[in-house]
Specification:
Blueprint lengths: L2 E4 L14 E5 L15 E3 L15 H14 L7 H14 L19 H14 L2 H7 L10 E5 L2 H4 L1 H14 L3 E4 L2 H4 L4 H6 L3 E5 L7 H9 L6 E3 L4 H10 L7 H12 L5
Parallel strand pairs: 1-6, 1-7, 2-4, 2-5, 3-4, 5-6
């Protein structure tokens, strides 16, 4: 069951976390959680933990990997060169290479612009020290239990947090909790929604593309769309989706409660 919490208050998500789960947050939400009932909890430490983001690869995981690359480094992603270099990376991902640095070989000369672009995309990832340490070393992180990823952009940087979170999501088989979904969303996450594996916190609907917003609304119910301290425009839209026509007393009441706290189902 996918859940959507809309507004500044993300605590309603805590009531829907299963065991195991991958929890991605900057720390404020994590500090409120009681995970004592979870069988095995790992607190992710980028100085200690590492994993192979290209292991056990198949087509949809390869698509998601490329979406992460394109979103993290959007310059030129619509060009023909980028399209062909992504095709090279896609084929290399399905070839089960042992580690990220071996995924794409450097071009024999600069005339091979597609190989050069593909190589530079992977090289760019590994130039970030934290990403090289986490994504290009031996595996020291199990994806079988609950994993708590405290990713603070003020310490690690937005791009590093984005890549770490999405590479972990691409490897994780269970429930995924993302309290700042607008920061991390990529099109591949629609699959998490349809599989009922996503708990997403969104500050404002404007943080999302129309496609992702519609996917979240279609993949949740009025019981699993939880407004709490949300803005009036979002509250008004949610009221309609909850079955309260605009102008009705129920619509007005819903908005009032959603702006303050979550209304009853």
């Amino acid at each position: 069951m996918s859940v959507l919490a809309i507004g500044r208050d993300k605590t309603p998500l805590s009531h829907h976390i299963s065991d195991p789960a991958l929890i991605i947050d900057d720390g404020i939400f994590i500090d409120t959680l009681d995970l004592s009932g979870h069988a095995h909890v790992t607190v992710f430490d980028p100085a200690e933990h590492s994993f192979n983001p290209i292991s056990d690869m198949y087509d949809t995981k390869a698509d998601a990997f490329l979406e992460v690359l394109d979103a993290a480094f959007p310059q030129g992603q619509t060009t023909l060169t980028s399209r062909y270099s992504n095709h090279l990376i896609f084929k290399a991902l399905l070839a089960n290479k042992p580690r990220l640095e071996a995924l794409i070989q450097p071009p024999k000369d600069n005339k091979d612009i597609y190989q050069k672009d593909a190589y530079e995309k992977i090289e760019r990832l590994l130039l970030y020290r934290v990403l090289e340490r986490v994504l290009n070393r031996g595996t020291r992180l199990s994806f079988t239990g609950t994993i708590v990823m405290r990713l603070d952009p003020s310490l690690l940087g937005d791009r590093v947090c984005f890549v770490l979170a999405n590479m972990a999501i691409n490897q994780y088989p269970g429930q995924v909790v993302i309290t700042d979904f607008g920061r991390y969303a990529i099109p591949a996450h629609r699959q998490l929604i349809t599989q009922g594996r996503l708990l997403a916190g969104v500050n404002f609907f404007d943080e999302l593309t129309d496609e992702m917003k519609n996917a979240l609304l279609a993949g949740t119910t009025k019981e699993t769309r939880i407004p709490s301290l949300c803005n009036p425009d979002d509250a008004a839209e949610l009221a309609v989706h909850a079955g309260h026509p605009r102008g009705s007393e129920g619509h007005t009441t819903y908005i009032d409660l959603a702006i303050k706290r979550a209304p009853p189902a």
